[in-house]
Amino acid sequence: MAVAVATDTRVGTARAALWLFAAVLAIRQAAAVLTLPPGERLLDLGAWTGRNGVLHVPGSLYDEGRFTGTPFTGLVLRPLADSAEQGLGVAWTFGTLLLVVLVGLVAARALPIPVSRRSTLLAAPVAISLLMLSLPVRNSFHLGQTSVIPVLLVLLGCLAVRAERPAGLLIGIGAALQPTVLLFAPLLWFTGRRRAAVTSAGAFAALSVLAWAAMPGDSWAYWVHHVAGAGLGESPDSLANQSLHGALLRLGLQGGAEIAVYLLLAAGVVLLGLRRAVRYAHDGQLLLAVAVTGCVAVAVSPTAWQHQLLWVLLAVVGRVGRRAADRMLWPVLVVLAITLPGTMLLPNVPVLHPVRDNVLLVAALVAACAVPFLPLGSPHFRRPVPTAYAAPLPARWARVPLLPFWRRALSRPNLLLELLVIRVGYSVYAQIRAAATGGVAAAEEHARQILSVEAALGIDIEHWVNQAVVKAAWAETFLDFYYTSFHFAVPLAVLGVLYVRRPSDYRWARSSLAFATLLALLGFWLYPLAPPRLMPGMGFIDTVHGPQDLANPDYGAMTAVTNQYAAMPSLHFGWSLWCGLVVLLLAPRLWMKLLGLLHPLFTVCAIVATANHWVLDAAGGAVVVGTGFGLTYLLAGRRQLQVGADPVPARPVPGARSHADDAHADGKEAAAQNA
Questions:
Q1: Residues 6+ apart with CB under 8 A from 427
Q2: Are the C-beta atoms of 369 and 271 separated by less than 8 Å?
Q3: Which helix (H) or strand (E) holds 389?
Q4: What local confidence, expressed as pLDDT, does residue 563 receive?
Q5: How far apart (Å, rounded) are the C-alpha atoms in residues 440 and 529?
Q6: Are the C-beta atoms of residues 641 and 392 closer than 8 Å to each other?
Q7: Chain mean position to CA 211
Q8: For position 661, what pLDDT does the model report?
Q9: What interhelical angle do 359-369 and 286-300 show, nearest 10?
Q10: Mapped to the 3 state alphabet, what secondary structure does 24-36 carry?
């Protein structure tokens, strides 16, 4: 009884915290729009209903290509054209906020029955928070778009309203606003709701005819001249158009060949995606069926702008993976794809550009056609194959670990998830590092402070070392190469070897490196520091980047690449020291340990000789790395695990004995390696 009460208390606390977080995000989103100057907010709405908007100007709505909605949308919006601009902006912003909250509530209530009570209680604030963070919702707020309305109408018609005709009417109205929503009519038909399907098609036709009668010229321009809106708004081959049509245009296909390929692919996506959606609906996962159908609509639409891609986020409800270690891969992929730009998810490598430029389209396609979502009848739907954990050795202090629930898994984490988290983590690190500029005057003043401290300690050797290396061509060439080549390669190589050979130590080492990097970001933000090469009048020679125009605060092209004043602490040395310590602790041979220690030695020589860091910057790097290891120890306990101890599984899984045995064996092997 006491355990149940404690569990309910924790769930209640978590629920309150999540609702508070969702409320903060909602307030922030509304404030971000309303605090902008009138000419910079609700751009599309202003272009439609403003003083010189298309709803006021004589002629067709589509003459200038600024209006991208259907004629029925124009008919609905026309009464708003006479509203006061300020009042309309406020009402539209809070109206959109209410619609987003309703979408989150309806989606949360539609989770399938086998979902746990805890998940049901926490689903609503989590759903609203993810919606507020998503690119489509943020884009809709900024532009003043109507794209949230069709999503809400479909969710109400498919999930909340059980009466056939009202449900069909809601979906028909959504289709009149966004024509590809009509794809939900086949979903209704093949899931036994035929009256709703017929009603939705009839409502769409009736509302389109009504708009045609009221605005015949506009209707002709939209449905015939622009082929259901294709070509309206931005250029269809722009990155903003995340549809198959836009992707094919970006790949270089044009004319009849592109249209033929597009129609063929669209037909295949519709056939495969709707079959999967019907199967999930019959299985009892109606919300997933709606999400899959929405992803089909996104992919096959001639134009799918960012604010129309909210369907992709709904696909997060699908469960993928039999192992607990793989269960988070799909939701993390979806959330990252729908909240971050593609440039943060994938590196700037030409071979990856087709994927990077079409991340949302790829997410929609794989959700619609490829991802093997688990059926409700699967024994792994609620209870995946558990992850084996091992208890740490007793620590020096009784209160360590401070986070006892941070258990040490013995099996390897999901590789794709790890690579994605590392890439996104580095992208966020680069963004924060670039933002923490601090100003030229402050950075140079801090550099003079560092130099005075070094002079007092007798370690101000940077100028002497820099000049000595410049006079020795072989040393300059070697240290320049070392500085530019090994900063990323060696840490990634160490992590790769640990992932393959010592998975439990991989998690420990990765966490320590992450803590050290976060602490370094704090240093960049609080203490901007000019490196020696950017200090005027001191005679340092930048051997790596070449001469810099110190009269120009931008210092050439390098400023566009990285923050020039992110010098304290030196992560060049910090990451190299992390590599050396990890190799020293874990390498089985003495020569390997010695080789690992050479890396931080060569790195500290390179950063000082090339005039990219002060000596104290290296000391700062050592401090953040040591603190990173210390935080991992305090929070998770000792690195070593109990030798020979049986791994501690999660809840047993009926019917998954062989997988649990495999995890048990992997755990014993990893524990033996730690010995």
A1: 340, 343, 344, 345
A2: no
A3: strand 389-390
A4: 65
A5: 9
A6: yes
A7: 40
A8: 39
A9: 130
A10: HHHHHHHHHHHCC
Say if CB 520 and CB 574 are below 8 A apart: yes
79, pLDDT greater than 60 = yes
Integer angstrom CA distances of residue 263 from 257, 267, 310, 454:
10, 6, 23, 69
Angle between helices 286-300 and 255-283 (to 10 degrees): 180
Residue type, 146: T
- Token match 């409502």: residue? 203
Per-residue pLDDT band for 229 (boundaries 50, 70, 90) equals: confident
**pTM, entire model:** 0.83
Q: What is the DSSP letter of 398?
A: T
Which residues, including other chains, have CB under 8 Å from residue 662's CB and lie 6 or more apart? none
Separation between Cα atoms, residue 294 and residue 273, nearest integer Å: 10
Closest CA to 55 of 31, 91, 82, 34: 82
The model's confidence at residue 423, banded by pLDDT at 50, 70 and 90, is confident
d(CA 155, CA 107): 7
Q: Which of 588, 675, 594, 593 is nearest to 639 (CA)?
A: 675
Determine the Cα–Cα distance for residues 56 and 465; give it in Å rounded to an integer. 71
* Chain centroid to CA 101: 21
Q: Residue 329 has which token pair? A: 């891969």
59 burial (CB, 10 Å; 0-12 / 13-18 / 19+) is: exposed
- In this predicted structure, the answer to whether residue 660 has a pLDDT above a threshold of 50 is no
- Helix, coil or strand: residue 164: helix
Give pLDDT tens digits for 598-647. Answer: 999 999 999 999 989 999 999 999 999 999 999 999 988 888 876 554 45
pLDDT reading at 672 higher than 80: no
Separate counts of helices (H) and strands (E) for the chain = 30, 2
What is the phi-psi region of residue 192: left when phi exceeds 0, alpha when psi lies from -120 to 50, beta otherwise?
A: left
Q: Exposed, middle or buried by CB within 10 Å (0-12, 13-18, 19+), for 474? A: exposed
Burial of residue 123 (CB within 10 Å: 0-12, 13-18, 19+) is: buried
Instruction: Please tell me the distance from the alpha carbon of residue 125 to that of residue 24, in angstroms, as a whole number.
Output: 11
- How far is residue 456's CA from residue 575's CA, in Å, rounded to a whole number? 27
Percent of the chain, pLDDT > 70?
A: 89
* C-beta of residue 160 within 8 angstroms of C-beta of residue 105: no
Angle at 245 between CA 240 and CA 250, to 5 degrees: 65
Tokens of 269: 């996506």
User: Following DSSP, what letter does each residue of 220-277 receive, concatenated?
Assistant: HIIIIISTTTTT-SS-TTSTT--SHHHHHHHTT--HHHHHHHHHHHHHHHHHHHHHHH
